[in-house]
Amino acid sequence: MAITPPQQRIWWNEPIERVELIWIGVAFLWGLFMFFFMIAWHFIGQQNLSNETYRIAPTAYGEKVDAFAAKYQVREEEGVPVVRPPAGADVYLLGRLWQWWPILELEKGQSYRVHLSSVDWQHGFSLQPTNINIQVHPGFEHVLTLTPTEAGEFGIICNEFCGVGHHTMTGRIIVTAKRTAARMEAQ
Ligand code: CUA
Questions:
Q1: Residue 158, ligand 1, Cβ within 6 A
Q2: Residue 73: Cβ-neighbour burial (10 angstroms; 0-12, 13-18, 19+)
Q3: Among 34, 55, 94, 145, whose CB has the most other CB atoms within 10 angstroms?
Q4: Which of 128, 126, 115 lies closest to 56 in space, CA to CA?
Q5: Is 165's C-beta closer than 6 angstroms to any atom of ligand 1?
Q6: ∠ CA 53-59-65 to the nearest 5 degrees?
Q7: How far apart are CA 78 and CA 126, in angstroms?
Q8: pLDDT the model gives residue 44
Q9: CA distance 186 to 20
Q10: Nearest protein CA to atom 1 of ligand 1, as residue
Q11: Number of other CB atoms surrounding residue 160 within 10 Å
Q12: Cβ atoms within 10 A of the Cβ of 133, count?
């Protein structure tokens, strides 16, 4: 029993008010506008990258990343391999509790096919300070073309909450201006 029962007991069966209809209409039109603007923003905002997505078993993806890292590793930083793939190569990055692995070293002005996936939970790939932001799920492999336009060090942070270590889940992409003479000799 309510403390202040409504006077009209069949309140749920009243005819709809005009002002309610207007607000339903406004909300519906706004929803439509937002929906189509998502598509428009892809073209005019240059924010959301076009990417392809494929189904893949998390273990199969893990094996691809391991093979990639073993093939192109150039050094190690704090126990994490630094991997320098050739220009145009397929590049694999792995999200897991709680890191983006391995560290990539790319060359400015070259294009790479970057593959992203997770082997455990949902993670976020947010490249700082550029505006690239991709939601990454285990079981799905995202592929996008990335062409670094600036040399420097870029951070990857996870922006999908993935547990107690979420705030520590980071990674790095190092972009070099071009191959140094010393490195070319070494190869
Ligand atoms: Cu991974 Cu948050």
A1: yes
A2: middle
A3: 94
A4: 115
A5: no
A6: 70
A7: 22
A8: 84
A9: 74
A10: 123
A11: 18
A12: 15
